[in-house]
Each structure stands twice: as structure tokens, then as C-alpha cells.
Amino acid sequence: MKVLYNTILKAKYTGRPNRFVVTLDLNGESVLAHLPNPGRMWELLFTGVTMYIVPHDKPDAKTKYRVVGIERDGVVIMLDTNYSNDVAQHLIEKKLIPGWEEWRVVRREYTVKLHGTSSRFDLLLTNDKGDEFLLEVKSCTLFSKIGAMFPDAITERGRKHLLHLKELQNEGYHTGVLFLVQWDRAQWFLPDYHTDLEFAKTFKEVAPSLDWKAVAVAWDETFTMPTVTHECSYPSSILDTEAHDSGVYVMVMHLDHDLDLEVGSKGMMHFKAGYYMYVGSAKANLTKRIERHKRKRKKMHWHLDYFRGHCEMIAGLPIRTSLDDAECALADAVRGVAEWDVPKFGSSDCDCKSHLFGMTENPIHNKKFMDVVEDYRMNKLDALVK
Known about the structure:
Layout: E1 9-18, E2 21-26, E3 29-34, E4 50-55, E5 65-72, E6 75-78, H1 84-93, E7 104-114, E8 117-126, E9 132-140, E10 142-143, E11 147-150, H2 156-170, E12 174-181, E13 188-191, H3 197-206, E14 213-218, E15 227-231, H4 237-242, E16 247-255, E17 259-262, E18 268-271, E19 274-282, H5 286-294, H6 303-308, E20 312-320, H7 326-337, E21 340-341, E22 356-359, H8 367-377
Parallel strand pairs: 3-5, 9-12, 11-13, 12-14
Antiparallel strand pairs: 1-2, 1-4, 2-3, 4-5, 5-6, 7-8, 8-9, 10-11, 14-15, 16-19, 16-20, 17-18, 19-22, 21-22
Helix pairs in contact: 2-3, 7-8
């Protein structure tokens, strides 16, 4: 069995200065490590979690180490996307992908020209009949208890790639996608319509035309080639009811100073320095609502409009759902992990104590808060999976 790395070390995650660098505690020493995965990975990167690193194999590298994996709930997860094609080729050649036993890899990074446009695909497969199969490989690191979604950040390039795969399929090519779900507990897979609704709509459109699979793989601390535990189901009916531009959201903001502010008819209100989470809803145009909240200059309408001009916007987290009572239920859940709230802020038309909550730590890096987001985005779908 092929071992991908010779020397693997364990370290504790402490921070992420940019998309491709993390800071780690390695036996009491603070070190930098290259992170070869551009995903947000908000559901994985929490202070103190175990990361697996190797000495950098490039002598002129800016960091001494390179990340290969991380742990979640005691499960080893591969993060090094550089080896995705190697893993896919191994699984295909060992006939471990259910339904693809007839295929074998004949070329890597295969280029196809169509109507004057060239596209490069991760793998070219063939079978005993001489058929050709153009395959794209994606690594999925967004999971819940038993679910998996892709992508974890907006990817217009990925959406256009799906359309091109379908176009090639219509021209007579055999095309598909292999999603390597790096979580052996995942039972179902969906496009992440919360994060990238347009990608999800496109995936729903093209999925019936493509030969694609999402397989859950299991790793261990040696990072020897993984095994396939099972193929994930695709509960496409959930996209019919949930993948729409409506639902609830959480705006995450930072106020760097104590503030006394007049908020419309509510009068003067006090806000102490810290991070804030505002819970709202939109029955339509959820994306535009979030984008409006991100802007500082606008006509004052909601309570948040008054507060927004004095703080830094960290993130807007959409949760697309058909549940009627989701806003107040989400506000109650966020209140349960917050350190304080601003009484009756944003809750004039309901019985909630508030819809604006605060904490001293950035919520994006707070596991309890991100667990709430995961619960409403993914775990609540478990009951809908058939």
C-alpha cells in the first residue's frame, strides 16, 4: 500500500494568517505551515485541534512545514488536495469505486478541445471496449454528523466547469465527477446551496446527465491510501424544497470600541466592544438582503442599519430553509452560545428577547457557534433524507 508521506508530525492549530498559511503549536514551539487547500474550512479550524504536518520538501519554501490533515471528533481527515488525483487513481485501479469497476486510468491532466475552447481534465479513463471517460476529481471537506456538501465557498469556475462537462456529454463524450468525501461517517451528499446557490442549481440541472459519484473515504494517521467505506446517497428532492433564495441568516460583525448609539424609535442604546451576531430572515431575495446589510451607506430602515455603520463586517451566513419558524429558533440557538445580547434589538415584531448577540471571540472561530450554523444548514436535513 502506497504511503504518501515519510515523516508525519502532530501539532495544534492556533491560527490562519491567510488562506494558505496556518500557525501551529509544535511541542511548545510556534511554527508556520503551508495549507495546500484554499477552502474556508470554518467547520474544522478551531484553536487546539490536531493537525498533521510534514517537513516541507522544497528548500526555498516560505514555511518549514506543510499541512496534510486534521482531526475532527477523533477522525483523521485529509486536507492535502495535491494528492486528490493520486487517491482517485488508486481507488479506480483497485476497483473500489462502486459501479466503476470496468474503468482504468490511462492518462492524467488530459486536454480536450471543443468549439475552440480547451479544457483540461484530471483523469482520462478507458475500459476493455475502448470507451473514454473524462473525469474531474473534487475533495470534499464540508461535513455534518452524517452529511457532506460541496463547495464550502462560492466557485463560479466550478459552476462553469459543470456546464462544460454537460456540453461535452452532449457532444458524445462520457464525462463525470468524483467527489472524495474525506469523512467516513457521511451518508448523504448535496451541493452546498447555502453557500453557493448558483452552483447548486447548476449541479441539479446537470447531475442526471453526468456519471458522477460521491464516496466516503477513511484515513488513518499513516496517511496510507484510504479505503472507500461506501457511496453517499444523493437526496435530490431536498434541492426542490430547500434550494431557493429565501430563509434565514446570521451577520457576523466586529465593534472595536464601546458605543452609545441612537437606534431609530428605540432611542439611545449601548453596545460594548466585541463581536456581534445578528439573526434575520428574508422570504425572498435572501442574497440581496445579506448584500444590503454588508453596505454601510443606505437608507435607515432596520435596527441593524444604524449599527452597521460603526462596525466591521466579518461574514454573512445564509441558511436557506423552508421552515416557517426558523428565524426565532435560530435566534434562540445563537443566544444559547453568546455571552450577551442587546435587549429587543431586531425583535420588535416577535417575542424574542433579541436578535443581536455578542461574544468576545470571533464567532467564525468559535466551535459552539459554528455547530449552530452546521446544525441549521446540514444536521436538520437528516430527517429529510430518504
